[in-house]
Specification:
612 residues, alpha+beta, GIY-YIG endonuclease, Nucleotidyltransferase, domain 5, 5 domains, eight-stranded mixed beta sheet, seven-stranded mixed beta sheet, 18 helices, 44% helix, globular, disordered N terminus
Amino acid sequence: MTQNGYPDRSRLPTSPGVYIFKDVKDAVIYVGKAKNIRSRVANYFTKSGDDRPKIGELRERIRRIDFIVTGSETEALVLEANLIKRHRPRFNASLKDDKSYPYIVVTTGDEYPRVYATRAAHDPRHRYFGPFPSASSVHSTIDVLNKTFAFRKCRGPEPGRHSGTPCLNYHIGRSAAPCIGAISRVDYEKIIADVIAFLEGRVDHLIREREASMREAAREMDFERAAKLRDELSALTYVRDKQQATIASEDSFDAFGAHVEGESACVQVFAVREGQIVNRDSFLLDNYAETPAEAVALQFIPQYYDAAAVPREVLVNTGETEEALAPLEAYLSDLRGTRVGVHRPRRGDKRRIFEMAEKNARLGLEHEKLVEESQRNRVASTLDTLREELALPRLPVRIECYDISNTMGTNSVASMVVFQGGRPAKDQYRRFKIKTVEGSDDFASMNEVIRRRLERFAEGDEKFAQTPDLILLDGGKGQLSAVVPVFEELGVGTELPDIPLRSLAKRDEEVFQPGRPEPVMLRRESPEMHLLQRVRDEAHRFANTYHRNLRGREMTRSVLDDLPGVGPTRKKKILEHFGTPEAFLEASLEELEAVPGLPGRVAREVHARLHR
């Protein structure tokens, strides 16, 4: 049912909850929270409602309104954040990259916790710190941590190796080696407590402790321990000195500064712990609906604290009343375990830090726009030169590249990767299992894959609907010769659009094209050659990954199917526990014994079979 051309809203509840706008394809295009769902949704359709042009476009695209009623506004806020992460609706402000941001995890659920970087789903038993804006920032932090705190670096919930001997990290002072009993559990827990204190920004506290311990060791003439503490103190002082002391008090808070320009937004988070700026992260967001900066920041906060440590205060530029901010405060307070205040700073050092965050958000977005413009110019120049060098009829904005992967003719697969405007378009990657070719025949396999791709295009398959400006084959004259008959048979250039075809031979990086016996030789160091190599190497990586996964699953199935005592239920538990076939095949006996529901006898049989 509709009202004035829009979905019927009369049956929406007046309870708190989440409303979900969907388009004609039933895709989620916007998610919002409300104290009163019916009243909030009505605001989108009244004359006095939001008059932003993008909201007008949103109204025109709505064909269905779903809702989820919650028990409170706080629950609605959490649900909204989760749904935005899951569906990435076009009209919600969301992170530009759909990748998960890296975190540092301290596996507090293990008897002897580990510390490492992760992008995986969060385990409620463990502590997570982040998100960090890049993998390099995570690994540099872990490196500083491990130079100071000798936590174990071995994999798995239990410390140690198959051989029972300590690893190299123990001998160079990077691991306390709980695997051989070199440290008691109580002392190891102290190391982990210090790691957590460091990640929470309590560096001054750690420095004071080590200064006192170093003086005590010197008094007792334990010079070896004193020297070790001196080195730790030096590393911690270096970290502290890199941080800018900005506040006279020892307050701890996060300041969220946001800046919006058109369809782009930037949020900068300044983390202050014990009066020092201990971290500054910058996040770029897509803001297609041109949501104001204030709303962007408020919507981003629950996503940011999905697993990050919550401070006592959160500063944000908001004109919302205390009542309107109550759900967010309740949510953050629940995460922290004590009350968290959310407000706009009015004066003093907190306002200065907050204004610094806002200024950096503006500068960050300006810098990103300059970088993007510069990159667009470079890409356009590279694509134009590539068009001339390879005699292409048009600019190769969309490049598709294909590669074949197999082992001795088994598990033969192919990859299709797509570069759009010089960048990987990973949501458009496709993979194929070779169906008609027996054994290791890359030429025939390439023939099959290109035929299937073009046939799907001719049939109007949405997954293959776009016309490539260039099809690139990983290989030389042989692969090219195998595909040319497919183009002729399917009428490329007559019944189908004209699609340029080239192949790139790896040995001398030669580019071959149909009807021309001599290859085109691009300059080795040219941007055009680098682009083709990136596309080719990505196709190779994607094909090999798919092949390796298939082979691993086949090997895993083969091994498990032959084992007595492993039925469908235990097989499922083993695969769920290790996540990937490779992890299972490399598992130690201790790791196998840790699989829930797997008896020790069966674990030993599995281990014996794997390492036979």
